[in-house]
Specification:
Elements (H helix, E strand, L loop, with lengths): L1 H10 L5 H21 L2 H8 L4 H27 L4 H21 L3 H28 L6 H30 L3 H21 L14 H7 L2 H30 L12 H26 L8
């Protein structure tokens, strides 16, 4: 056992404790999010009685507020506010959105909760990615991002599996949103207690100044368009596919589709495969550079 442990330590990326703590926090919060990620559309259509179109509009509203949140999160992270405080606000808003989802009983409250969730997620990602970059060297940065994404997918996989088991055992969907909210509060506590704002070589930019630089960058504009295609695929995967499996696949006279447990198992396998491949693929592709990869 000791030999395998030492081999793992030698194989694992050599990253700072702060990066590992950030990854652990993401694992924690994503486990909570996994409880609801693929089951929320099923609950609001089949249990609460919203139409699939209404659920799509609600989830789409999260994308709209997410755009605003990312713009704001980038500005706050680059400015005097800093990465750490932006992350803590994101965790607090995300926790609030989960609790609003837990009490949602109509379309209006469902949209409000998704607007809050989109804002929280939007604030989170620019600050988190910038903080990982601050805490790493160019040689270790690819693997640091791979570790955070690995924990992302591992947390989702664990959450989806446990969420499916919970629904199969109790039929109580609303408790999943409460658990999700608690996981964000735990992330907030970890950030508050263990993560410090790193010193940056460059001076903080005046609020909003970075946007004039970013919007003139032609390569960034091209990359942004390509990125839209990837994110559209992810949104379809998490919002439409669960409903399709639940309502239209494997229909019989007594069953309309796959059970929540079966759907959770399918998505857990998908996420586990991502976890297993994440670090080996990152190391394999390090030699090619980001653009070729």
């Amino acid at each position: 056992m000791t030999v395998w442990y030492k081999k793992f330590l030698n194989w694992a990326p050599q990253l700072s404790l702060a990066v590992w703590l950030l990854a652990a926090g993401r694992l924690l919060s994503q486990t909570g999010s996994g409880f609801t990620a693929f089951l929320a559309p099923i609950f609001f259509v089949n249990q609460l009685g919203l139409s699939a179109t209404q659920v799509g509009v609600g989830l789409g509203s999260a994308a709209i507020s997410g755009v605003i949140g990312r713009a704001l999160g980038g500005s706050l992270s680059d400015g005097k506010f800093g990465r750490r405080w932006t992350l803590m606000i994101a965790a607090l808003i995300s926790a609030g959105s989960s609790l609003v989802l837990a009490i949602a009983n109509n379309f209006t409250v469902f949209v409000l909760a998704n607007l809050l969730m989109g804002m929280g997620i939007g604030l989170y990602w620019p600050a988190n990615e910038a903080l990982v970059a601050d805490l790493t060297t160019p040689e270790t940065r690819n693997e640091a991002f791979a570790v955070t994404r690995l924990c992302d997918n591992l947390g989702l996989g664990l959450g989806v599996a446990m969420g499916g088991a919970w629904v199969n055992a109790t039929g109580n969907y609303r408790a999943l949103f409460v658990i999700d909210g608690i996981s964000f509060l735990l992330l907030l506590g970890l950030l508050l207690r263990f993560i410090q704002e790193p010193e940056r070589v460059e001076a903080p930019l005046p609020q909003g100044k970075g946007w004039s630089v970013a919007l003139r960058d032609r390569r960034l504009q091209t990359y942004s368009l390509v990125n839209i295609l990837f994110t559209a695929y992810i949104v379809l995967l998490t919002s439409t596919l669960p409903l399709y499996f639940s309502n239209f696949v494997n229909q019989t006279e007594t069953s309309r589709g796959f059970s929540p447990g079966m759907i959770s198992s399918l998505f857990t396998w998908h996420l586990c495969l991502s976890v297993v491949c994440q670090l080996p693929v990152a190391r394999l592709l390090n030699r090619f550079g980001q653009v070729r990869t």
